[in-house]
Amino acid sequence: DRDTDKKRIEELLEENMVLEIAQKQSMNESAHLGWELEQLSKSTDLADTRKSFVFELNECASSRILKLEKDNQSLQNTIQELRDASLTSRESSLKFVELEKENQQLSKKIEKLQNQIEKEKQSNQDLETLSEELIKDKKQLQVVMETLKADKDRQVQ
Fold first, then answer.
1. Those residues with Cβ within 8 angstroms of residue 41's Cβ, 6 or more apart along the chain or in another chain
2. Separation of alpha carbons 154 and 149, rounded Å
3. Measured between alpha carbons, how far is 45 from 140 in angstroms, rounded to an integer?
4. pLDDT at 92
5. Per-residue model confidence (pLDDT) at position 17
6. CA–CA dist 83, 12 (Å, integer)
7. Helix axis angle, 2-41 to 90-156, nearest 10°
8. pLDDT at 150 (0 to 100)
9. Which residue among 49, 57, 63, 86 is least packed, with the fewest CB closer than 10 Å?
């Protein structure tokens, strides 16, 4: 039983390391995508590109969150299995506590990512609204310019 427990703990530790690496990659991707979004928001002529980028950003972040939630659920199931097995060895208990802490940290990180995504979605919506307003203003100014130009041409004639 102890050997089985040790093997299972090692597997869980490996899983945790993989999750941490995936999380770091996700955070790096999120930062990079945020930078790209910032670059796109500076250009008013790329409204369609920005919308597709925003959609991709939200999809990517959502898939990352789902993956992390799935991994988190897997860890919770493993923790429950370990509880059910009523492990008595002190080493297993320490590993269990360690895994539970890591699980809680992952849960917190998932929550932070979800909050960050919500903020980014709101920011993206604000940017889209502003972009649409600017485009409307531009069209109105073009109409006014054309009207003034026509009036000027009539006056010149």
1. 50, 127
2. 9
3. 16
4. 64
5. 93
6. 14
7. 10
8. 92
9. 86
